[in-house]
Design a protein that fits this description.
Elements (H helix, E strand, L loop, with lengths): L8 E5 L4 H17 L2 E5 L8 H4 L1 E4 L10 H19 L6 E5 L5 H9 L3 E5 L4 H9 L5 H21 L2 E3 L3 H6 L9 E2 L23 E5 L8 H10 L5 E5 L5 H7 L1 H6 L2 E5 L6 H6 L3 E4 L9 H8 L4 E3 L15 E3 L5 H12 L4 H15 L2 H22 L1
Parallel strand pairs: 1-2, 1-4, 2-3, 4-5, 5-6, 6-7, 8-9, 8-11, 9-10, 11-12, 12-13
Helix pairs in contact: 1-15, 3-4, 4-6, 5-6, 8-13
């Protein structure tokens, strides 16, 4: 328990890949600033900073499995049993299932232990799994399996003392009423506004448009490659990041790269991300509907970089069309290219840049995030007390 009476929190996650590790690290940083915190997880990267900064309980070094559904299901069940075992004897009064919203057995077990239980989805997991499974399974089977995961997730929502989402729009996309009691729709991430700041005023930036993130299928990289090829020669399209599609991208756009119209930077250290964002006149993110709220969007707005993104999940609460950024209505390459050109011809981009920075300072700073989670922890404790 913290000095001001807030309960300690045990965060439970599913096996972590790099993107999940980054999001979990941010959540732990917030919680550690307001109370005591520990983490129960699996597959944590060996070089993760979490190992040195927080109490860690590792379930296993093997994840849920990706290639074989039967193996994935078996590991999914086994990890739930391991989570239950890890929760026995924990001192924290609150257990927060972060991303692991379909892990119904440990959610119910935590309730039986007398813990206050929060669940916080990172995105639309059932949809993510369905799209993944459809690549190797019949569509009917993929939809059926995803439907089972959806039912488990909904049961987890119902069993918990509260559900935390990044923004109200994300809550609505997940079928939750943001106004309903025990739904906490403002648990969004944060940005270190001292590190992510406007170093180059928007009016002084070159005609560089870009993408920052993983170069993978779900990020719309093939679509962006078509966009990059078709932009007028006065624009440069920069791909910042690395991933499975980088070799394909470099082959596909070899001529444009040689001409200097396209740049592929490869992986960049996180400390270099603010500089990269300050180089861009516009960040383009044709996000899948599986996204929750990409941290890159918050970081870009903090750097005064307007964002052109698909209005999915929590995105429209941050990328406000015509105010702090722009919504992608159609991910067709020609439509995207026309949208980029139209945006860059606007005469109010400096004002949009300034409003994006103000939004982050007011609502998504570290201090604001800490205050949100203080409120959530107080509310879940008070709600349990009222029901008792």
């Amino acid at each position: 328990m913290s000095e001001d009476g807030l309960p300690g929190v045990c965060v439970v996650t599913h096996p972590l890949a790099s993107a999940g590790e980054n999001a979990t690290r941010s959540l732990l940083e917030i919680l550690a600033a307001v109370t005591t915190v520990s983490l129960v997880t699996a597959d944590l990267p060996a070089d993760s900073e979490i190992r040195d900064r927080h109490e860690l309980i590792e379930l296993t070094e093997r994840g849920a499995g990706q290639s074989n559904v039967a193996v994935a299901a078996a590991r999914f069940l086994l990890n739930q049993l391991r989570m239950c075992r890890a929760l026995v004897g924990r001192d924290e009064a609150v257990v927060l299932f972060y991303g692991a919203t379909a892990y119904l057995a440990p959610i119910l077990f935590a309730r039986l232990l007398g813990k206050r239980v929060l669940v916080e989805p990172r995105g639309d997991v059932p949809l993510t799994l369905r799209l993944h499974w459809e690549q190797s399974l019949p569509a009917v089977l993929a939809r059926t399996l995803a439907g089972l995961v959806r039912a488990l997730e909904r049961s987890g929502f119902a069993a918990a003392d509260g559900v935390v989402t990044y923004t109200p729009a994300m809550a609505a996309q997940l079928g939750l009423d943001p106004q309903r009691q025990r739904v906490y729709p403002n648990g969004a991430r944060f940005v270190h506004t001292d590190r992510f700041d406007v170093e180059t005023p928007h009016a002084e930036r070159e005609r560089v448009v870009g993408f920052l993130g993983r170069l993978d299928e779900e990020k719309g990289i093939r679509t962006l490659a078509s966009v990059a090829r078709s932009l007028p020669p006065e624009y440069t399209f920069r791909f910042v990041g690395d991933g499975g599609l980088r070799p394909w991208l470099e082959r596909e756009l070899a001529e444009e790269i040689a001409d200097g119209r396209v740049e592929v930077t490869g992986w960049v250290d996180h400390d270099d991300v603010p500089r990269q964002l300050n180089d861009l006149e516009l960040l383009v993110l044709p996000s899948d509907p599986t996204e929750g709220l990409p941290t890159t969007i918050l970081e870009a707005l903090a750097c005064g970089t307007p964002v052109y993104a698909t209005p999915v999940s929590g995105v429209p609460d941050v990328v406000r069309d015509g105010e702090t950024g722009f919504h992608i209505a159609d991910r067709d390459p020609a439509t995207l290219r026309d949208g980029i050109e139209s945006i860059l011809r606007r005469d109010d981009l400096d004002e949009i840049s300034a409003r994006g920075r103000t939004l982050i300072e007011d609502e998504y700073s570290f201090a604001a995030a800490c205050e949100r989670y203080r409120g959530i922890l107080r509310a879940v404790v008070d709600d349990r007390a009222d029901r008792a």
